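Morning, I've got a small favour to ask if you have a moment. I'm working through a protein record and want to make sense of it properly. The fold is given in discrete form, as structure tokens running alongside the sequence. Can you walk me through what the tokens say about the fold? Thanks so much in advance, here it is:
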Amino acid sequence: MLCKKFDLPPAQIIFMEVQLEASSAKIEQITALEAQHLIQVEPTAQILDVRETWEREFGSLPKSKPLNKNLFKEILKTNPKDTPVILYCHFGVRSLDAAHHFCREGFSRVYTIRGGIDAWSTQVDASIPRYSGSYC
């Protein structure tokens, strides 16, 4: 049922459920509309894109930065642990994995966008084209 609802393969659904169960108290999955609102009301929020370079060519969320090891280390050093961290990828799996790293480092306001940039494209900004590719 979830596979049809989210157009994802069964293994992807299982992986996401396991990830959520492991840290459900720390990571909040939010809708694209909720993310848009959070970005507007939280000027210090870190909006982080965990997609590959070729994926970012399709478009990115406003004020987002591509997450890499150097940026991760910089955020750990310079941001208070209550800084909102909003992560996204294509559908929401890689961002969930990255969110676990922020939680392990003590960040308390960690969010992933349920459905990733694909949901952003359909719910918030249709000018960002949808693309096919990995479900991750």
The CA atoms of residues 9 and 59 lie 24 Å apart. The helical segments are 2-6, 10-22, 32-41, 53-56, 69-78, 93-104, 116-123.
